[in-house]
TrEMBL record:
Catalyzes the NADPH-dependent reduction of glyoxylate to glycolate as well as succinic semialdehyde (SSA) to gamma-hydroxybutyrate in vitro. May function in redox homeostasis and play a role in oxidative stress tolerance by detoxifying glyoxylate and SSA generated in glycolate metabolism and GABA metabolism, respectively. It catalyses: glycolate + NADP(+) = glyoxylate + NADPH + H(+); 4-hydroxybutanoate + NADP(+) = succinate semialdehyde + NADPH + H(+). Residues 2-161 form the 6-phosphogluconate dehydrogenase NADP-binding domain. This is 6-phosphogluconate dehydrogenase-like C-terminal domain superfamily. InterPro entries: 3-OH-isobutyrate_DH-rel_CS, 6PGDH_NADP-bd, HIBADH-like_NADP-bd, HIBADH-related, HIBADH-related_NP60_sf. GO terms for cellular component: cytosol. Residues 164-283 form the 3-hydroxyisobutyrate dehydrogenase-like NAD-binding domain.
Length: 289
């Protein structure tokens, strides 16, 4: 199977490398073209614009930072829309809001192409290990044709119906994750300020009903104030913002998520946006100093 891949950030690089390892022919494009070099070493071909990738490949996957990037890659000069046509499929796996996804769907299908949104749950390591959880929606036939690729990228693929449902589900999952990360950060800081060992707190949490891979994976490095970016904080804040907008639309009161969003905003204002989202603990420490 030949696929195009647009966007070689933390996730896109891991996902496209995985596809190459599993025998897919992959043609890549990235806004900063030099980031394609490493993929070429693994056997990928490169194009100079999203439109060129679409022209070459029957199926193209995108993994871009946010709604603005997802729209730009489709609608701008040299973008997806210039070459999408009947017989081609576009699968956008970026985390965006439903409105963005619907706009892209309308434009792609208006040109005779097919569209699936497929945001993923799981971070850098699950992307490297092909263990993502894929939250797809849109064209069912394209979803089914994409299963060989999804099976390489993920451990489970959900088909959630109409375009927008994948985006909404992903935002809800990440809203829960961002809120949990804040409660966890407050607990670690409170333990430390109360004269208790935050490492012992991790051991206690791990033995009880609240044990989870996120606390287990991030806790030890948070206790060392180390935040190598797996999921950049600026993207987690984007997801909180978009999830809160979804809450507004549906009149769902979400004070916990709103407070968590404020902490992520604070962390961004402290210059921590490119670090891992667990760096939000620095905003918690800051507010108590
Ligand atoms: N990291 C993670 O753990 C996870 C991330 N996600 C989601 O996946 C998506 C990608 O995340 P991640 O790989 O971490 O992000 P990165 O910030 O590492 O990569 C972002 C990618 O988007 C590209 N990009 C940004 N703006 C534009 C633009 N205006 N036009 C074209 N390309 C653009 C970047 O290109 P360039 O290299 O030129 O800057 C880069 O390829 C996000 O939506 C994120 O929320 C989902 C699950 C897990
Ligand atoms: O979107 C981030 C993730 O870890 O999932």
């Amino acid at each position: 199977m030949e696929v195009g891949f647009l966007g070689l950030g933390i996730m896109g690089k891991a996902m496209s490398t995985n596809l190459l390892k599993h025998g897919f022919k992959v043609t890549v494009w990235n806004r900063t073209l030099s980031k394609c070099d490493e993929l070429v070493e693994h056997g990928a071909s490169v194009c100079e614009s999203p439109a060129e990738v679409i022209k070459k490949c029957k199926y193209t996957i995108a993994m871009l930072s946010d709604p603005c990037a997802a729209l730009s890659v489709v609608f701008d000069k040299g973008g997806v829309l210039e070459q999408i046509c009947e017989g081609k499929g576009y699968i956008d796996m970026s985390t965006v809001d439903a409105e963005t996804s619907l706009k892209i769907n309308e434009a792609i299908t208006g040109k005779g192409g097919r569209f699936v949104e497929g945001p993923v749950s799981g971070s850098k390591k699950p992307a490297e290990d092909g263990q993502l959880i894929i939250l797809a929606a849109g064209d069912k036939a394209l979803f089914e044709e994409s299963i060989p690729a999804f099976d390489v990228l993920g451990k489970r693929s959900f088909f959630l119906g109409q375009v927008g449902n994948g985006a909404k589900m992903k935002l809800i999952v990440n809203m829960i994750m961002g809120s949990m990360m804040n409660a966890f950060s407050e607990g670690l800081v409170l333990a430390d300020k109360s004269g208790l060992s935050s490492d012992t707190l991790l051991d206690i949490l791990d033995l009880g009903a609240m044990t989870n891979p996120m606390f287990k994976g991030k806790g030890p490095s948070m206790n060392k104030s180390s935040y190598p970016p797996a999921f950049p904080l600026k993207h987690q804040q984007k997801d909180m913002r978009l999830a809160l907008a979804l809450g507004d639309e549906n009149a769902v009161s979400m004070p916990v998520a709103a407070a968590a969003n404020e902490a992520f905003k604070k962390a961004r204002s402290l210059g921590l946006g490119d670090l891992d989202f667990s760096a939000v603990i620095e905003a918690v420490k800051f507010s108590r100093e």
